[in-house]
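Long-time lurker, first post. I've been practising inverse folding by hand and with some scripts of my own, and I keep getting stuck on stretches where the structure tokens seem ambiguous. Below is the full token string for one chain I'm working on. Before anyone asks, I'm not after the true native sequence, just a reasonable design that respects the backbone. If someone could post their per-position residues I'd love to compare against what I wrote down in my notebook.
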């Protein structure tokens, strides 16, 4: 897979280096910085040089095109050889992407007409001049076009792109019967949620952490999740309740408190697919019973994937899969879960 990152004098270094750091680590890719003329180019600060590996004419059919931004791209908005190269690269590319004001170059090349796109906030409205619909989001997908907002959003774009570069070798991955590769990553992510001990809480208030999946969640949605997860007593124990400040990683909370808030955070918005990866670690018996209640409440209504060493959770599973020798295989010896099954441990087979 060939990836071309366009570089030019006075570009913003992170716009190019952010995607590079992500995409260059994907096995089997051939990534090159390309420019009108090969050689070293100075970035917008003048203190950093980036070396162009190839001339535009040497790489006209990339699988992935990345166009960064920076004050230097103003001169390229009317540079017909560069714009023509972008058009030709887009004809062969699987993905055409931009970071920051790089989207203006895509627009000048005629690639944004009728498309949803984003850019640096100060230049976002300028996208209308190219027929685009400006969107105030960090990463925006429209077909094979991915645009990212200012500077560090290029890393987000690189991660979004990395998740879409490779389709399954066989079959399809479907959600509600729909092939996820045909939908925007943002819409797929909105349907998924996850709770695990190694997913840290973020710096901010407890409420801000709970709103992570859905920043504009209405108060009644938070109230529902707090009740479902029995957080009332936990919040009452905190010095400022739901407004209590959480330090980076939640280090000012106990392991059990962090895990319960993490679980509640995952349930905001009632995701269609919930992944619980050892979510019962660091919890006491009462809190583990809460996990069990959450699993049972979603039975038949939502898909719940549970990774656990606790055999008692198996009694509710419709299917049990085991990871052995690097392969995930269905265990035919485990019967389907029964709603009225007793909660009792089941011996795991030794391997």
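-- Answer (accepted) --
I ran through it position by position. Result:
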């Amino acid at each position: 897979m060939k990836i071309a990152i366009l570089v030019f004098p006075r570009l913003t270094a992170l716009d190019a280096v952010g995607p590079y750091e992500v995409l260059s680590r994907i096995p089997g890719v051939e990534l090159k910085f390309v420019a009108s003329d090969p050689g070293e180019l100075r970035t917008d600060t003048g203190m950093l040089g980036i070396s162009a590996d190839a001339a535009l004419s040497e790489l006209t059919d990339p699988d992935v095109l990345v166009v960064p931004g920076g004050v230097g791209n103003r001169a390229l908005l009317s540079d017909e050889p560069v714009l023509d190269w972008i058009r030709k690269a887009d004809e062969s590319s699987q993905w055409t992407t931009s970071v920051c004001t790089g989207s203006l170059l895509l627009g000048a090349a005629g690639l944004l007409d009728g498309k949803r796109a984003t850019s640096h906030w100060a230049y976002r409205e300028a996208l209308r001049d190219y027929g685009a619909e400006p969107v105030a989001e960090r990463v925006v997908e429209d077909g094979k076009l991915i645009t990212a907002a200012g500077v560090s959003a290029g890393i987000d774009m690189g991660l979004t792109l990395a998740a879409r570069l490779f389709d399954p070798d066989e079959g399809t991955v479907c959600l509600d019967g729909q092939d996820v590769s045909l939908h925007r990553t943002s819409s797929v992510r909105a349907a998924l949620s996850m709770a695990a001990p190694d997913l840290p809480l973020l710096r901010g208030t407890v409420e801000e952490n709970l709103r992570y999946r859905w920043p504009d969640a209405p108060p009644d949605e938070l109230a529902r999740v707090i009740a479902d997860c029995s957080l009332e007593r936990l919040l009452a124990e905190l010095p400022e309740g739901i407004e209590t400040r959480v330090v980076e990683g939640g280090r000012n909370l106990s392991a059990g408190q962090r895990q319960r808030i993490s679980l509640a955070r995952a349930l905001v918005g009632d995701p269609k697919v919930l992944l619980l990866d050892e979510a019962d670690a660091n919890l006491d018996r009462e809190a583990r019973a809460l996990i069990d209640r959450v699993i049972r409440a979603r039975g038949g209504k939502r898909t719940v994937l549970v990774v656990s060493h606790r055999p008692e959770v198996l009694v509710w599973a419709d299917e049990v899969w085991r990871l052995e020798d690097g392969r995930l295989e269905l265990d035919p010896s485990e019967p389907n879960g029964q709603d009225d099954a007793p909660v009792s441990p089941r011996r795991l087979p030794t391997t």
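A couple of notes from the structure itself: The chain is about 25% helix and 20% strand. The two ends are 40 Å apart (CA to CA). Happy to go over any region you disagree with.
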